[in-house]
Specification:
CATH topology of one domain: Porin
Helix content: 25-40%
Shape: elongated
Radius of gyration: 35 Å
Strand content: 35-45%
CATH superfamily of one domain: monomeric porin ompg
Largest sheet: 14 strands, antiparallel, barrel
Number of strands: 16
């Protein structure tokens, strides 16, 4: 009996030892596999940090063959591929992840970024906006949307977002981007300088033909004016020349004028201009002058919507000469609005007029404006009567609008009350051919 009991005990010990020996190789094998995967992952991340992107991507692929369910590593592979310019493959990986994790904010932001690099700006902006609807303070999404809008030339909205990011981060790179986008706003809104990929306001290659008709009180005959104008870019410079036949006060003058527009130093631009007429009856014999515009974003990002200007013209008439000073400020507002305040001052007579103009550019080729001028002189001084010191009110409104791909129209309405001198009313229509 004792022998049988001992035999049973020995058999039990043998079976236990056999099980232990059988389990040890499996546990060791699992540990080795896990260690191998970690080694591959660490090597991939190290290669990524040293910008060995080909090697990093290869190692991430190797890891995913061993653990295809790891979406975190799949996102790392997509990121490396996007940096290499393999955007389509990166997008496919991000979409694959979102099919399983549709609310993952980091992956949605990453996908939006790659789509913006592919110039799919509408989809990119929609992805960023969806993230911001859920997390309005997400700085990465806010800056990504600002970048997308900047690249797609929606400068005003991009500026507001960049300013919000700067308020949260005080990142100097964002401050520089604010200066850059405000510079673009300034050029696109005001100065016909800098290269353009397609016709957009202000046009740089164009020919303009126009006609104006005004009526007067106090027995003055109707005024009929024409204009022939053309612009030609020369690199960053733009030359504008015009011939303006004028029939005013029963007299006929034909001044010839031109301006040369140019960017100047940082966030500044300006133009020089001159005009002349042979034996004129009411316009100056000679006018020379110019104007300089300076954005204030160099001082602070908070001042980026402001642009100061100063213009000067010397006008020589038959009997006298005058100086016209034109200080002003432009405030760029959201949604492509801007407000321009300008003073027209003639020191010799002490006549002065304040002009306020609100302009809106909803699209590249549609622009609307309304303005009012109040003071003791005219607003666009071209004749002696315009700077005569007398109470004046000037109201204007107009639009530039597309007619076809290469043609645009410009329609202006004008009302001027010069108190005891006259009331002047009129309209102008210009046809613009641009390319």
């Amino acid at each position: 009996m004792i022998r049988w009991l001992g035999l049973v005990i020995l058999l039990s010990i043998g079976i236990h030892l056999g099980d232990t020996c059988a389990q040890e190789p499996a546990e060791v094998g699992s540990s080795q596999v896990q260690s191998t995967r970690l080694d591959i992952l660490m090597a991939a991340k190290e290669a990524e940090s040293t910008k060995e992107f080909d090697r990093s991507a290869s190692l991430y692929r190797d890891y995913l063959q061993r653990r295809p369910e790891d979406d975190e590593v799949r996102a790392l592979l997509a990121r490396v591929l996007s940096w290499q310019g393999h955007h389509e493959e990166a997008v496919a990986l991000y979409r694959d992840i979102l099919a399983r994790h549709p609310v993952d904010i980091d992956v949605r932001i990453a996908l939006a970024r790659v789509r913006s690099w592919q110039q799919q700006f509408d989809e990119s902006a929609a992805l960023y906006r969806a993230v911001l609807d859920e997390d309005p303070k997400n700085v990465e999404a806010k800056q990504g949307l600002a970048d997308t809008l900047y690249w797609s030339k929606h400068y005003q909205e991009a500026l507001l977002l960049y300013q919000g990011v700067y308020d949260q981060t005080h990142n100097p790179e964002v401050g520089q981007r604010i200066l850059a986008v405000t510079h673009e706003i300034t050029l696109s809104a005001r100065a016909p300088v800098g290269p353009r990929a397609r016709p957009a306001l202000p046009f740089r290659n164009y020919v303009k033909l126009g006609y104006s008709h005004y009526t007067y009180t106090n027995g003055f005959p109707d005024e009929r004016d024409g204009v022939i104008e053309a612009a030609k870019p020369m690199g960053e410079l733009t030359f504008v020349g015009r011939i303006t036949p004028l029939n005013r006060f029963g007299l006929h003058d034909t001044p010839v004028s031109g301006e040369l527009y140019s960017p100047l130093w940082k966030r500044a631009w300006g133009y020089l201009g001159a005009s002349g007429a042979i034996n004129p009856g009411f316009v100056p014999n000679l006018t020379v002058g110019g104007e300089v515009f300076q954005g204030l974003g160099n001082l602070s990002p908070y001042l980026s919507p402001f642009e100061l200007s100063f213009g000067y013209r010397r006008m020589h008439f038959k009997q006298e000469g005058i100086d016209l000073l034109e200080p002003g400020v432009t405030i760029y507002l959201p949604f492509n609005f801007w407000l321009t305040e300008k003073i027209y001052y003639v020191p010799e007579q002490g006549s002065i007029t304040l002009s306020s103009q609100l302009t809106w550019r909803p699209t590249d080729r549609l622009q609307l404006f309304a303005s009012g001028g109040f003071g003791t002189s005219g607003e666009r001084i071209i004749a002696i009567q315009d700077f005569t010191r007398v109470s004046s009110r000037i109201l204007q409104g107009g639009a530039i609008f597309p007619i076809s791909e290469r043609f645009s129209g410009e329609l202006l309405g004008y009302y001027e009350d010069r108190s005891t001198l006259y009331v002047r009313r009129g309209v102008t229509f210009n046809l613009i051919w641009h390319w």
